[in-house]
Amino acid sequence: MAIRIFETDPDAMPRGTFSDDTVGRFHSGRQVNGIPESLATWRVSTGDPDVAAVVAQLLGGQPEETDSTSENFIEILTGAERVKIVLADASAVTSDMKLWNGSALIHHCDGVEYLSPDEDRGKACGCPALMEDRKAAAKSKRGPSPSISVTFRLADSYDLGLFRFQTGSWKLAEVLHEIENALDRVGGEALAELSLELVEYTTKKGRDVSYRKPTIRVLKSWSDAAAE
Asked: Fewer Cβ close by (within 10 Å): the C or N end of the chain?
């Protein structure tokens, strides 16, 4: 049993201690007055001032302490829309489908079968077969959305530690099999590019639409890249 001294005095916990094995998070957006806002460049959050300083040096931006109560209370609005990263292997990219009601997970599946709770695991989840129907159900809060987690190192500062990017992007979900296949072909650590790609188009009604989608492009094995 672990000691529980910080339960009664959470402010005494050292800010440099992380609840998982990552030193920071990458974000493609932020909340402004409670309203989601997408970004053209990466936002990075961390609880370690030294990590923040290195990220700012590599990607631009200025570390700023926020009012966040999370362990990653320092954020850097970088100037980078593309970042070279190192993925350990195909297991560095994980995904499932989740539907939340506030903080309660009410549907958890892989798109075909339930992943939880244990008593339902392996049973048909009842999600629509067609992609467009899946998206429509998720948009109306009647079905789950993708939950994709990418764990990586910065290629330009490999020893800085692991970072994580979490996204619900359908566009990324649609090509995850291609990323997995590319990582399997490398068969180990891979150099990749994590980017926020600009998408622009005009609807049939003449409305101009633009947004950023997260993309992952596997480039080569990390050992080959490091040897260059």
From this structure: N
Q: Measured between alpha carbons, how far is 183 from 95 in angstroms, rounded to an integer? A: 15
Give Cβ neighbours of residue 5 (< 8 Å, ≥ 6 apart): 12
Grouping H, G, I as helix, E, B as strand and the rest as coil, residue 38 is: strand
Instruction: Give Cα 190 distance to the centre of its chain.
Output: 18
Three-state DSSP state, 36 = strand
Q: Which residues contact 208 (CB under 8 A, 6 or more apart)?
A: 200, 201, 202
pTM: 0.86
Residue 154 corresponds to which tokens in the numbers above? Answer: 């910065």
Query: In angstroms, rounded to a whole number, what is the distance separating the alpha carbons of residues 42 and 47?
Result: 17
The answer for residues whose C-beta is within 8 angstroms of residue 129's C-beta and 6 or more apart is none
